Amino acid sequence: MxxxxxxxxxxxxxxxxxTAEEVGAEIALKGALLICGGLGGVMEASAxxxxxxxxTTIGILPGDSRKSANAYIDIAIVTEMGHARNxxxxxxxxxxxxxxxxxxxxxxxAHSLKMGKTVVTIDSKWEIEGTIKAKDPADxxxxxxxxxxx
Length: 150
What we know:
Layout: E1 3-7, H1 14-29, E2 33-36, H2 42-52, E3 57-61, E4 75-78, H3 85-92, E5 95-99, H4 103-114, E6 118-122, E7 132-133, H5 137-149
Parallel strand pairs: 1-2, 1-5, 2-3, 3-4, 5-6, 6-7
């Protein structure tokens, strides 16, 4: 099963939330598994979108308790590693989609690119060399899946 990471900030405005939900829904509709950091903001919104379409979600949690996972996470992986868990997200995903994002997202992008993973950005200030900018959520998921299948 294809595993797509969705990365982004732990808080977001309504527009970014809608975008993240649409990305999650598209991932589920394509039969892929969604991996995220398991907390709020973009992570929660993308997981909610995936669940709405019958998808499966995994949250790689920074803390020491599964209880910190948002309500849309099916499988909660407790790391007690703080931001170091970003490497696990990057390594576990076949490709990643950055929705918005702050410095934690930037670290995930950097780790992913260093690992040779495809990173697609949407509504992100981190559209840097090596990433691919998508025009909308469906385009982001299409680009991610196409890159995995090549």
